[in-house]
Structure formats: structure tokens, C-alpha cells
Amino acid sequence: MNYKLLITITVLVFSLGCSEFLTEDLQGTYSNSTFYKTAEHALLATNACYEPLAFKSAENNIWVFGDVASDDATKGGNPGDQSDISFIENFETNPDNGFVLAIWEHCYNGISRTNEAIANIPNIDMDITLRNQYVAEAKFLRAYYYFQLVNIFGEIPLKTQPVETSEDLHVATSSVDIIYSQIETDLLSAKNSLPVTITAGNYGRASKGAAFGLLAKAYLYNANYEDALAYVDSLEALNLYGLMDVYRHNFMLAYENNKESIFEIQHLKDQDPFQGSSMNQWFAPALENGYYFDVPRQDFIDEFEVTAGGVVDPRLDYTVGRDGETWLNGEAFDPAWSPSGYIQKKHIQPLAEVGKSTKGDGDLNYTYMRYSDILLIKAEALNELNRGSEALVALNAVRTRARESYLYDEDLSLFGSIPADLLPAVVASSKGTIQQAIMHERRVELGFEFHRYFDLMRYGKAVAESALSYTSFNYDTKRYFPIPQSELDINLNINY
User: Distance between CA atoms of 232 and 220, rounded to whole angstroms?
Assistant: First the structure.
């Protein structure tokens, strides 16, 4: 069953999460005593764990932290609109910032749902294999939500059980290492019961490959390169994933859930309850009824390689709308549409797919993890393990795909042959030079997919402070964003 079609169980979530504060019976289809009884209940509970993944509203604002807080993007939009984003961008964030609160509540909402599922589904009398799979999906999702939180906030409360008493709400913060340990524990458990393949009716559900990929990413973030490489190898051994011939197909409706996609968050327009993507409106230009936020900075544009003959890395124009190029609907791009002169493309659909009147109800998915990301994780881990020649193979595979878009994409003006000297293979031999090449490749390959800020932070103080020198960023004091004030007011065990 496709989780896009999930039945809304908000009544369930709130009855399970907050029953101790209520003095009268809840009015709804299910209560604590009547739910978690059947296989259908298990499916509903698991589906509910996926619901916070979608970009249905501004509550899921990971793009603010992944893009705008990095050197890739600036806030965009009208100068006074959503001013809290500007404080995040400039690292002048207070605990009462609305976007900080939104992502905190959003991820903990997901964690609360996964905790309920993990605790209760094992007690249901149903097919054991399917029951174990549902629990594994919930564990994968809990790891995903904690991965986002720990990389934004650092030390946070670790909650792995359903809330049953008021004391369960007052949880002290745990160290970053402890949070990562929980992420590792959940993923190592989940990988054993997740399916290898996801069929068409179940796109968007967690797979064994997704667990391997997130494990590799988590180990990379902790400089555990041996284990990162081991799980890249496990993912590749599945023989399911590969690079698409044309880079831009990863961001087009017609090619969703393709062979490069390892974990893809689903959207579907024209649904009740709402299941569309609001990013389509947040990032689109005003003439399309968009808000034009999260716009590229010149520094990002300048990162792309250009040949002596003036041919640019094709990923630039697949990623960004800029002067002199064609926009998504076929018209000439106007730099006046954006305060930076650029607009990102990856999460915006043409008007032929989503009209102006329904701009905030897009059905383009968001791919959190692509195989190209895995190849670059592999390259980085190999290089750190002093296996530079092997690292170059993975790195150059990503560059080759970008270069060979000219052989497969008929919409490119120079289609049919690869322009001379475009994206040549990296042949560097020193560890440091290869590292710089990998960092460059991650930036241009994964630009505006909400990864850049987190890469900068894990690269360390010197790299992060240099990249963000135009802001008030200080790695020692502003590496993590502040815990929201409302959490500090409610949770008496946080000493902050």
C-alpha cells in the first residue's frame, strides 16, 4: 500500500501522546484500548510515521538550515518576509526563532510517532515478517529524524519510549555521541527486516538500501571511514542502484523513484487530506505565484567549472535559473525575478504540471539520498583511508555522468558530443588535493538538496568559518542552533 494514500490518524497520535493530560474521553474512531490490535492498525501506525517527512507546509523547513545557513543560498523573498530566516542565515538566531521551533517540533512529532509504533506494533498478532518490517521502518525513520535534529541542534533530549507520564516530557539533553549511538542502533536493527526492493505500490517506504545509505552517511559524519565504506559496499552489493544518464531527470516528475533514488520522500497533488509539496510555491518566482525563497548566491554559481571555450558544467543550468538561459516553462529567465539574480530549479515544477492557482500543491518528490551521494561518500571514505586511486574512481564516475549528459539530453544546445575539456577526470595524487576535489564535487552535484550546511560543519572550523565569513558565524559558539525557548520553558531538565 502506498503511504501517499494513508488514512489520517491524527486522533490516534494525539490520544496516544497526550492522554495523561485529559480528564474526559477522547472522541474519535480509536482509543488506546482499541488500537494496535490488527495488521491494518500496524500499517496505519507505520504510515503515520512517514507523514512528517513530506514538505506539506513550512513546518518542514530543513531547506532553511541545509541551504540558507550555508554559503550556497540567501533567504530571498521580499526583504521583510519571513525575517526569522534572515537571523538563521546570519547566525544571529535566538531561541524564540519561529523556524528553529518549527523544525524542532516537526522532527519530534515524527519521533513521537515512531516511538509509539516501535513500542506497540510488536504486540499485534499478525504476520511476523510484515510486523518486523513495520517496526524496522519506524526505526529507520526515528534514526532519520534524530539525524536531522542532532546535526542542527547538537545535544538534544533522547526520547525512545511513548510519553505516558509527565516525567516523560522532562528529559535532559544527551551528548551528540549518545544521539549518534541511538541512530546507529536503530539502523543496524532496521536493516535486518527492511525489504531489499520497493514495489511500485510502496514507493517511498524505507528499504535495506536506504538503511545502508544512512548508516554510511552517519559513519562518515563521525569520521568512522571503515564502517562508512563497509555500508557503501553493502548497498552496492544489492545491485539495484546506478546513476541516471541525464542528471536533471532526478528532479523531474516523469522520472520519480528511479534507479538513482535510494530514499525518496513522496508528494501527491489534489489530495484530501493534503499531500502536496509546498516547496513548489516557496521557491518559485512571483509571476508564478511563488515566494522566491532560498535563492542561489553568486559564490555557488562561481563554483561550477567552465571550459576555455565557455561551456559550463551542465549541472549549473539543471540546478539554477540565470540570465541568458531558458526557464522551466520555456521562457527566457529574468534575473529581476530574484534578489540575487538566480532561482533554484530542483524543487519547482513547470506551470504545465502545477498551475499558478494551486502552486503550493506540487507533486514533485524530494530525494533525500541519491546514488551519486553514496559514490561521493565512498570517495571520501577511501581517500581518508589513504586509498586515493580507488577514491578517484568513485569521484570520476560522478563527473563522467555530468559530462556525458551531452550524449543523452537532447535539450542541451550542444547535444551529440561532449565539449572539449568539459569536466576532465581528476588525476590528483595527494590526499589533500583529492579531498578538495571531493568537497567541490559534493557542492555542485548535491547543490540545493539541503546538504551543504551539514557538510560545512563536518569539514570543521577552518572550512566552515572561511565559507561563512560574510556572516557572524563562529564555529566554537554557533556550530549548533539554540534549543527553542518553548522547549526550555516546558522541559525542566534542560540546563541551558
Answer: 11
Q: Which is nearest to 235 in space by CA: 259, 258, 252, 251?
A: 259
Residue type for position 489? D
Tell me phi and psi for residue 236, to 5 degrees: -65, -30
Q: What is the pLDDT of residue 29?
A: 61
% of the chain beyond a pLDDT of 90: 89
CA distance 474 to 29: 51
On whether the CB atoms of residues 208 and 195 are closer than 8 A, the answer is: yes
Q: Which of 162, 153, 73 is nearest to 340 (CA)?
A: 73
Q: How far is CA 421 from the centre of its chain?
A: 33
In this structure, what are the phi and psi dihedrals at residue 332, rounded to the nearest 5 degrees? -70, 140
CA angle 370, 243, 414 (to 5 degrees): 120
The answer to whether the beta carbons of residues 384 and 459 sit under 8 Å apart is no
Please give the model's pTM, rounded to 2 decimal places: 0.93
Three cell numbers, residue 11:
486522533
Q: How far apart are the first and last CA of the chain?
A: 44
pLDDT tens-place string over residues 40-59: 999 999 999 999 999 999 89
CA-based angle 58:299:417, to the nearest 5?
100
Q: How far apart are CA 94 and CA 301, in angstroms?
A: 30
Whether the per-residue pLDDT at 28 is higher than 70: the answer is no
3-state SS, the chain, equals: CCHHHCCCCHHHHHHHHHHHHCCCCCCCCCCCCCCCCCHHHHHHHHHHHHHHHCCCCCCCCHHHHHHHCCCCEEEECCCCCCHHHHHHHCCCCCCCCHHHHHHHHHHHHHHHHHHHHHHHHHHCCCCHHHHHHHHHHHHHHHHHHHHHHHHHHCCEECCCCCCCCHHHHCCCEECHHHHHHHHHHHHHHHCCCCCCCCCHHHCCCCCHHHHHHHHHHHHHHCCCHHHHHHHHHHHHHCCCCCCCCCHHHHHCHHHCCCCCEEEEECCECCCCCCECECHHHHCCCHHHCCCCEEEECHHHHHCCCECCCCCECCHHHHHEECCCCECCCCCECCHHHCCCCCEECCCCCCCCCCCHHHCCCECCCEEEEEHHHHHHHHHHHHHHCCCHHHHHHHHHHHHHHHHCHHHHCCCCCCCCCCCCCCCCCCCCCCHHHHHHHHHHHHHHHCCCCCCHHHHHHHHCHHHHHHHCCCCCCCHHHHCCCCCCHHHHHHCCCCCC
Smallest CA-to-CA distance from 140 within 203, 175, 200, 184 is with: 184
Residue 114 · residue 142 · CB < 8 Å? yes
For the chain, the domains span: 279-358
Q: What is the mean pLDDT of residues 389-416?
A: 96
Alpha-carbon torsion (429, 435, 345, 212), positive or negative: positive
C-alpha grid cell for residue 360? 503550493
CB 173 within 8 A of CB 157: yes
